[in-house]
Design brief:
This protein is an alpha+beta fold and 85 residues long. It contains 2 helices and 4 strands.
Length: 85
């Protein structure tokens, strides 16, 4: 009988040593994304592409006239991304 008890004790010790330690991690509250400003939620983005083979310009990025956005000029090509309400 002692051999079974000894074997059971050794088995229980072995299982206790193999079990991973329980580590309590601090819970962090879920971070919600910041709401968009109201002026951008009702806006519609627009993309335009202009090709002017006779007029070349130096590479540059400029503001869009009459709205929010940027325009990129590169040689005869002008790409404009604007936001209109």
């Amino acid at each position: 009988m002692t051999s079974k008890n000894l074997q059971a004790d050794l088995h229980a010790d072995l299982l206790a040593d193999l079990a991973p330690p329980v580590v309590e991690r601090p819970t962090t509250p879920a971070v919600e994304p910041a709401p968009l400003p109201p002026e951008l939620t009702d806006a519609t983005p627009a993309l335009s592409l202009h090709w002017t083979p006779l007029r070349w310009s130096r590479p540059r990025v400029v503001k869009v006239r009459g709205g929010l956005g940027k325009a990129m000029n590169l040689g005869p090509l002008k790409v404009e991304l604007s936001v209109k309400e």
